[in-house]
Predict the structure.
Amino acid sequence: MPYPFLIDSSLDPAATGLVSPCLRPARGAALRIVPRADGVELSIAPTAGVQLSISTCQPSEHPASDAVRLTIDVPRTAGTAPCAATQPPRRPPLQPPSDECISPSEMRVRDAAAALGMSSARFVRVPAGYYDQPLEWRARVVGVDSTARLCKSVIMENTRLSRTTGEGPTAGAGELAGRHRYVCVIQQYDGPRLDRDLLTAVVQELEGQRALGRKKYNLRLVPQHESNTLSGFAHNAVSPIGMATPMPVVLSRRVAEMGEEGGTVALGAGGVDYKVVLRVDELLRGLSQAPGFGVTVADVVR
């Protein structure tokens, strides 16, 4: 019986360190991936008659990335009951995986959440193909009651600020040292679009007396490779918790309002298939204590 896997080959394990040491297929058994100096070693538990086939995916099958499909074929003898792992669960499991299946970037988010007192944080390993499914399905998977609670973190860049000035890895001295080249914005998937004019006004306010005129700002989504470097997380895995580069965090007011009476939101947690659900008030309190520039609640969508 076949067990399909998809492995995203768009990341270089040696360069990013973002590949999880354990890949779990949608229906159960684990395939272990061990990065080596000369490549990646794949291994499965020894089972008689197991066949492993490898083939590339067609773009129409997996348009989001360049990937490789692996199929493990485990024949079943007559009279043997179907393996429980092959039976689709009524709802995706919400228990966190064991530590041996957590990547360094995922562990960084967990450690940061604990250090910042985010005691309500619940980590969820979602099934393969999570981002191919509608928002209603995703909400059920992570265990939230509304698609409005599904949030994403994106890094925006003021492209009119010289790369040799501002904060972060390219920090420089002089009159522009107090300005912000990058900001991380937390917004809803199911909601109004990010408004760059509103965000520009927020950044100007953050810069205070260092702020310049409107023409000196051009806020754009950073290229993917730059997001990977700044955040330390891959695409669809960015989390405001445990980011590699400290930067101001701007939380959409619509997200902040979800925190009334202990409301929760779901965010990326360092892995494409790894999410965290936590209370909004804890998220705000924790990010305000994190090293860097704190968190600001503002109207940035319309």
